[in-house]
Write a structure and sequence with these properties.
Layout: H1 48-57, H2 68-88, H3 95-106, H4 108-121, H5 137-147
Helix pairs in contact: 1-2, 2-3
Length: 165
């Protein structure tokens, strides 16, 4: 079965596309045919909601590639939730403080996985994150890689998620 919006392959019976987050019509004949995209035509950006779904769907998936929009929307969501926990649970030992700690632990692995996939999208290994150990300069180097556009075409980590065909 193919997504009616982006054309990616989906498991049968899926209500939302795992790539773009588009809701799928049940038993629609249009869902079973791949939409026609011109070769090299960019697919729609990943929405905020789709990025959150992909973040939790690919919980410990360190392989493949992630688009810029998926990466930045997911980190925006993580930052917003963490900020709310910090503001509401500022007293130590409180319930929200414990919940904040659990949230941080629960999102550590998928955050690393998303970072690895984003680096794969620009042609870098996940080990590039070791530059973060170098103060200031290392952080700048990694952020520049996160902000780069996708490497055109396929690379050693998989096909470009930004373009069709």
């Amino acid at each position: 079965m193919f997504c009616s919006k982006c054309g990616n392959i989906m498991p049968d019976g899926t209500k939302f596309c795992p790539s773009c987050g588009a809701e799928q019509a049940p038993h629609s004949s249009a869902v079973n045919t791949r939409p026609q995209f011109e070769h090299g035509q960019p697919l729609p950006s990943v929405s905020f909601g789709a990025a959150i779904r992909l973040f939790f769907t690919n919980y410990a998936n360190f392989s493949g590639r992630s688009r810029r929009s998926e990466y930045w929307f997911a980190w925006l969501f993580l930052w917003l939730v963490s900020t709310v926990f910090t503001i509401l649970g500022s007293e130590e030992g409180g319930f929200l403080f414990a919940l904040s700690s659990l949230w941080s632990l629960a999102t550590l692995v998928p955050g690393l996985a998303l970072s690895f996939r984003r680096l794969h999208d620009v042609g870098r290994s996940g080990l590039y994150l070791l530059w973060l150990l170098l103060p200031i300069v290392g952080w700048i180097m990694v952020i520049v890689q996160y902000a780069k556009d996708s490497q055109p075409g396929s690379n050693q980590y998989g096909p470009n998620p930004k373009f069709c065909c």
